UniProtKB/TrEMBL annotation:
UniProt keyword list: DNA-binding
Superkingdom: Bacteria
Gene3D superfamilies found in the cross-reference section: Tetratricopeptide repeat domain
Designated name of the protein: DNA-binding helix-turn-helix protein
InterPro entries recorded: Cro/C1-type_HTH, HTH-type_regulator_Rgg, Lambda_DNA-bd_dom_sf, PlcR_TPR, TPR-like_helical_dom_sf
Domain HTH cro/C1-type per the UniProt entry, residue ranges: 8-55
UniProt feature coiled coil, ranges: none
Record PANTHER family: TRANSCRIPTIONAL ACTIVATOR, TRANSCRIPTIONAL REGULATOR-RELATED
Molecular function GO labels: DNA binding
Originating species: Aneurinibacillus aneurinilyticus ATCC 12856
Length: 282
């Protein structure tokens, strides 16, 4: 990268930018006027044929900023189910000295476990990696942090994926106890995530009335925090439980409400799914 690295890499800004971003953004990065995201940094490194750690010798960005960018990119890609992309990031960062502290290594192991299941379908290895991540807890098994509670949620989801719904429910109940014992809760969405997972898995076990209770509790939190986060999913799950209990008219009310929420969120896939469910009721 000629202007930033003393002419070691003979490539123009336009060539670097092609397929990644604008030439203007590359110029701003070189001048130190813009901090690139982890995603852009990876793409630049790949185009230049470099290990991403090469940039650390030249970067003025604080290490913590880079770590935060990587963690953001990993979480974003997990939400988008881009597991191969996450796998590539983790493979690189596992060698990065910045990620060797227990806290950051735990983050990588957690997501490596998720990717191992969804890419390789290896549930035993995935669970082993998740447990290895939990073993890096700095507070011990008696007092988990918010992240460790989220790891428990991921473990529960994998149990459910292989049909172990009762074990999933037991894991989530354990996570709820840890959450209740936290003196300071920074992420208000964790409890909503746990309640939604519990509601789903209880439905799988045909415990529809219990599932409805968790849906109602999660929905109240969404309203309390003025957040649409999982509100549509909780509303749909509530309707699904009512449908299974034979309360079709009430179920349609919740399905219609969930459909409106997903329309506002431009979630066309869920809107289509609800339309399909409602067609069975009409």
């Amino acid at each position: 990268w000629e202007t930033s690295f003393g002419g070691k890499l003979k490539i123009t800004q336009e060539e670097i930018a092609s397929g990644i971003c604008t030439q203007g953004l590359i110029s701003r990065i070189e001048k130190g006027e813009h901090i690139p995201s982890a995603d852009i940094l990876y793409k630049i490194a790949k185009k230049l044929g470099l290990d991403v750690n090469y940039f650390f010798h030249y970067a003025e960005t604080p290490s913590l900023t880079y770590i935060e960018e990587v963690m953001y990119q990993v979480r974003k890609s997990i939400r988008e189910r881009s597991y191969h992309e996450v796998e590539e990031i983790i493979k690189i960062e596992m060698k990065n000295p910045l990620f060797q502290t227990p806290t950051f290594k735990q983050f990588l192991l957690w997501h490596k476990g998720i990717c191992t299941y969804y890419i390789q379908a290896d549930i035993e290895k995935a669970m082993s990696l998740m447990q290895e991540a939990l073993n890096l807890s700095e507070t011990g098994n008696n007092a988990y942090s918010e992240r460790e509670i989220e790891i428990l949620n991921s473990i529960a989801i994998l149990h459910s994926e292989v049909g172990q719904h009762k074990r999933a429910i037991e894991t989530l109940e354990k996570a709820m106890v840890h959450l209740e014992n936290l003196s300071c809760k920074k992420d208000v969405h964790i409890e909503i995530r746990l309640l939604y997972s519990l509601a789903k898995f209880l439905s799988f076990e045909e415990a529809y009335a219990d599932s409805i209770q968790h849906c109602e509790r999660g929905s109240k939190l969404c309203l309390q925090y003025e957040s649409f986060y999982l509100y549509g999913e909780l509303t749909f799950q509530h309707g699904y439980n009512l449908m299974k209990l034979g309360q079709k008219k009430e179920a349609i009310v919740y399905f219609c409400k969930a459909r409106s929420i997903f329309q506002l969120q431009n979630n066309s896939d869920f809107v289509s799914y609800i339309d399909e469910e409602m067609s069975y009721l009409s």
